[in-house]
Amino acid sequence: MLKIIKVMAFVTTVAALSACSKNEAPKQEKSEAPMEQMSKDTAKAASAQAIGVITAIDTKENLLTLNHEAIPAIKWPAMTMGFKVAEPALLNGLTVGQHVEFELKAEGENYIIVAVKPKAS
């Protein structure tokens, strides 16, 4: 009898936790997904200026990951994302944690970094 009560308690707990997670997951996902806030119906700007902080540099893949401020020209909210750089030399002299100004250029459906320099104080 005690074993049946324990099994029923376990099943009830699992069911309750499952129900809770199903109700909360979509809200949490939406609020933490800045890409969903990006406008999908805007005209693509040819280029855009932005400011950000370098969070990662990948010289093998020519990627620069930035925690950037909002970019009004392309209607993007502030977020952290990786960008391809047009020329590998653009990564020379950059360091993680550095504040930079950068320029993005539309390339198909994506934007690539065509210029990057330390942000003036």
What does this molecule look like?
- With 121 residues, the chain is of the alpha+beta class.
- The chain is 25% helix and 35% strand.
- It has a five-stranded antiparallel sheet with strand order 3-2-1-4-5, with no helix packed on it.
- The termini are far apart.
- The model is unreliable at 19-37 and 39-43 (pLDDT under 50).
Distance between the termini: 73 Å
Percent of residues in beta strands: 25-35%
Largest sheet: 5 strands, antiparallel
| Count of runs of 4 or more consecutive helical residues | 1
Helical percentage: 10-25%
Which sequence of strands runs across the widest sheet? 3-2-1-4-5
Mean pLDDT across every amino acid position: 78
Assign an overall shape.
Answer: elongated
Number of strands: 5
Q: Which sequence of SSEs, written as H and E, runs from N to C?
A: HEEEEE
What are the segments in which pLDDT stays under 50 over at least 5 consecutive residues?
A: 19-37, 39-43
Structural class, from secondary structure content?
alpha+beta
Estimated radius of gyration: 22 Å
Question: Summarize this, please?
Answer:
With 121 residues, this protein is an alpha+beta fold. Helix content is 25%, strand content 35%. A hairpin with a 4-residue loop joins strand 1 (47-58) and strand 2 (63-68).
Key terms for this structure?
121 residues; alpha+beta; 35% strand
Q: How is this fold's topology laid out?
A:
Layout: H1 2-31, E1 47-58, E2 63-68, E3 79-84, E4 99-107, E5 110-118
Antiparallel strand pairs: 1-2, 1-4, 2-3, 4-5
